Amino acid sequence: MLEKALSGSKKYWTWIFILLVFIGIGTVNYLRQFQTGLTITGLSRDVSWGLYIGQFTFLVGVAASGVMLVLPYYLHNFKQFAKITILGEFLAVSAVTMCMLFIFVDMGQPMRIMNVLLYPTPNSVMFWDAFVLSGYLALNIIVGWVVLGSEKNGIAPPKWVKPLIYLSIAWAPSIHTVTAFLYSGLPGRHFWLSAIMAARFLASAFAAGPALLIILALIIRKFTKFDPGKEAVQTLGKIVTYFMITNVFFFGLEFFTAFYSNIPGHMHPFQYLFAGIGEYNKLVPLMWTSVILAIASIALLIFPAVRRNESTLAIACAMVFISLWIDKGFGLIIGGFVPNMFETVTEYWPTMPEALITIGVWAVGLLVLTILYKIAITVREETAGVEIEH
Amino acid sequence: MKIYDGGKILVGLIIFIALFASPFYLNMGKAVAKPELKFDTPEIQQMEKETGKKQCVEPKEFMRAEHMQILNNWRDEVIRSGNRDEIVILGHKYDKSLQNGCMKCHSNKKDFCDKCHNYMAVQPYCWRCHIAPKEKQS
Amino acid sequence: MPYSAKGETVMSMNRREFLKIAGVSTIAGLGGTAVFSHLGKNSLEAVQTSPNTDALTGKQWGMVIDMDKLKSEETIKKVTEACHRIHNVPDFGNPKDEVKWIWTETFEHSFPGQEHKYMSEDMMHKPFLLLCNHCTDPACVRVCPTKATFKRKDGIVMQDMHRCIGCRFCMAACPFGARSFNYRDPRGKDANGNPFIKEENKEYPTRMIGVVEKCTFCVERIEKGLKPACVEESNGALVFGDIDDPASEIRRILNSQYTIRRKPELGTGPNIYYIIGGNDYAVVPEIR
Predict the structure, then answer these.
(1) Are A95 and A63 in contact (CB under 8 A)?
(2) CA–CA separation, A333 vs A55, rounded Å?
(3) Residue C254 belongs to what domain range?
(4) What is the ipTM of this complex?
(5) Which of B88, B125, B128 sits opposite C48 (nearest CB)?
(6) Total of domains in chain A
């Protein structure tokens, strides 16, 4: 079916070309980083994780959100999602690919990546993260490809796919819980040492992922002959709304615990992020942007009229996505490292090479997404009107 | 029998063969001498003076084939198991160490380690951390 | 065949089968030869070894730092420089890339949360020596995905530079900020052409770019029967010993003096104990 990605309109190839340019720029900058070291990023002895790991964390959430389509359809026969589970599965593939690439570019000795497999360490959460991410990637590739292939050939998928689908439903929350455990099990960092980390991660994942899916669905409807369905988009919109409210609520819970308890170690990261500490306030504008976008997006989304109008829905979803991208893809990580273990402040801001490498990885992910979606949509367009019982 | 895209296949085949065979025809006629390792460092000469023999941890053929494995084993024994039992060769004790053991006798990295490694186009990155002894001006 | 579509010829179905079989055979063949070559690896002939009897032995090495005995800037400088010199610790010249195994911090940064407004000036500014605590239950060991950092039988939290993948999870986990990452090549040179390692100790390796490093309690010295370099240079301010041995000097000190550790409430069991000392040079402010 890959050949379906090799034929497309002029717009399609222009988009591919743009992605390839950014991948090229990212690669060149990565080679420079490989040569000179991670010193060309903004990382330091105090802030040892930054943009790369932040992006990884955010994208694990986006990947996990595929389950938001798969679960209602396969467990509860929610027919509205029949046509678009494939979009969720392929988005998961693209997102997990980006996750793995972000880990790779963040490593100091990437050539030693096999050590994680050669010396498995069950007490290390990172070992389990590698395991569950690989498993989830494999599951989604297999399930997506087989189901799509069967559809293309006009038959029902083979029976063995069903247990894999059920497995992927259980697996999805696990990838994000394990990723949350990377943070919530570390004794020294009070910004992260919170039981609600995993719950927060899942809530924000199920808001950001479907928000992105809605935007993608609208783009697909505009540029192709495939219509994901108005009802499916509306249901996704409701999912985004409720999970965004939950996410903001959870954040409020964290805020309360930190400030009502008045424990300095708990308050300081929040103070740094939202008010600055002394002269150190680099992240304040960004964090407040995230907050304002979050509240504004909820203010829009709670009104059914706003959701029914797909233009305003798209805007609200973009706000959700950007807000959560800032919160999870940046603020969360930096907050754990500032102030440092000595209660002093070393600030962090990504450098240009770091940003270009990040954009390059995103371009790879978007390329994977484009190719997989092109295949899925072409198959859908070709088999339009053929009903298949799953 | 009709070959579809025969032209493209032929062109691709020619390019592939050209690339694949390039190491062979590019190096045709050039002879690279077999590496000759020097075993005449002052330390080895001293050993020969004292004992009449030149002896390493294991016999030459074994070392040639397995020195990488020996070093890996030493690495794990010293660092991970904390076992720094010394190697005894002809009555002398040596550290289980590349930098402080092997190189005590084989202090001529350029005429010893590098000779074979360059010939085989192998780049062990041991030396990025382990400090090679300064080459003595002979 | 579940994937056979209408219209495809028998020929193409066999081609798919053929490719599947060829692929699996190749993997089996390659994998099989690899397994065989490993099975055939002959064990090394018995090399004559001499047991290392010089090593200091212990079950859990620890240290007491007596701030009362650590009064001079000079001693502190000797202590930190000795460590960094013999271990080829690079000086990258900026706090962003900084690599340090042992350094000083004031009280409020060494024991954050314990300071208060009415402490003596002396106590506020005393330079406490900080290093890896070689915890009994280290968080860094818990999180390392490759066991590149691991706890030895003698309690030392060791770093295997050969295995470290540079993921820096240990740096996130360490509550004490004891670990440094090589953000650049320690064997490089700065903008003026000066090497980051001013004077190489030829008996100890450097590290390479992209790995994490920290104090190792001078394992290479302990195993030769020597005390850690910082202890030797400290003029008795640093006492090194086996916390597990009730007869050791360090236990005697712990039994007779009040000591504190950094962040003990986190449960990692740090093994560097501080006698924070008195206020010899305290300037008593005028009480108004």
Answers:
(1) yes
(2) 10
(3) 61-275
(4) 0.93
(5) B88
(6) 1
